[in-house]
Amino acid sequence: MDAYSDEEIARLISCPKKVSVPPAKNLRLNGADWRNDAKLAPTDGTKGIFSMFMRRNEDFPEDFSIGLVYRPEDGTSDITLLRCNGKHGFFNGGAGADPDHPHFHFHVHKASAKAIRAGFTPEKFADKTTEFASYEQAVQHYIKVVQLNPRDASRYFPSESQSEIEFTE
């Protein structure tokens, strides 16, 4: 997996994509999390496929993760490139009770060559973000960052600001 440079990771995240297998209409409860998934296909000639995962804790809706996974065409290991996460505080990596740690805030995990070289999960490191402050806003941020086709984005992931037209007789 050490073949990924930061430039290649950035290119994979931002290459234009379309929905190839749509998400279910609604999240489904599995254990403590509401879940959904979709498959994304690159539209710029990039080889391989992408998958999108969406997770949201049933009891703590501010604890969520929306991620992008890349599967190379050659069948080598999948790599998680990006995760847009909500607040979840404590974690197994040792953040303890440090309120300045990114996990106590809305944050983004992005794969890095540094993490891969160190033997960590590619997206180990996180940065706080002000780009979103809810699950719904995180989905819209994710769509923008991964360059999802606008037609697919509005069809499968309408923003809160998109009003529904009511028809009356």
Unreliable sequence segments: 162-169
For the secondary structure, the number of strands is 8
The amount of helix comes to 10-25%
What's the pLDDT, averaged over the residues? 88
Strand content: 25-35%
The overall number of domains is: 1
Summarize the biggest pleated sheet.
8 strands, antiparallel
Structural class by SSE content: alpha+beta
| Element-level helix/strand string | HEEEEEEEHEHH
What coarse outline follows from CA principal-axis ratios?
Answer: globular
Count of alpha/pi helices: 4
What would you report as the Rg, rounded to the nearest angstrom?
A: 17 Å
Separation of the first and last Cα atoms: 59 Å
Task: Set down the secondary structure blueprint.
Blueprint: H1 6-14, E1 17-21, E2 28-30, E3 33-42, E4 49-57, E5 64-71, E6 79-85, E7 107-110, H2 113-117, E8 126-128, H3 135-145, H4 150-156
Antiparallel strand pairs: 1-3, 2-3, 3-4, 4-5, 5-6, 6-7, 7-8
